[in-house]
């Protein structure tokens, strides 16, 4: 009998979780297309302001202009080049001790 109660409880929790997931996906899709209104300047609240698209702050450069270039650029290198670059970074690190210092 106790097994049936556990199965029923976890089934209810799973249904609630899936319903919440679906509701959140729908709300995020609506929120992505939402435009935000700006308040009118000077205290004249008698008219409605026009809707304006507000981009995410990470998509703006330091002067506030929209970035048109890709945010992540990856280039492929071979294993030997990557190993050499990692060795150079390791040898240039402040905690690195050379072989000569370790022998003394």
TrEMBL record:
Pfam families: DUF2973. Keywords: Membrane, Transmembrane, Transmembrane helix. The chain crosses the membrane at residues 6-26. InterPro entries: Phage_Syn9_Gp224. It comes from the Bacteria. This is DUF2973 domain-containing protein. It comes from Dulcicalothrix desertica PCC 7102.
């Amino acid at each position: 009998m106790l097994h049936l109660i556990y199965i029923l409880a976890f089934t209810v929790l799973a249904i609630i979780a899936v319903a919440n997931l679906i509701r959140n996906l729908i709300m995020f899709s609506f929120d992505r297309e939402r435009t935000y209104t700006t308040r009118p300047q000077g205290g004249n609240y008698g008219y409605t302001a026009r809707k304006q698209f507000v981009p995410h702050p990470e998509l703006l450069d330091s002067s506030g202009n929209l970035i048109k270039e890709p945010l992540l650029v990856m280039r492929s290198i071979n294993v030997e080049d990557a190993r050499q670059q990692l060795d150079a970074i390791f040898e240039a690190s402040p905690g690195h001790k050379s072989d000569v210092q370790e022998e003394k």
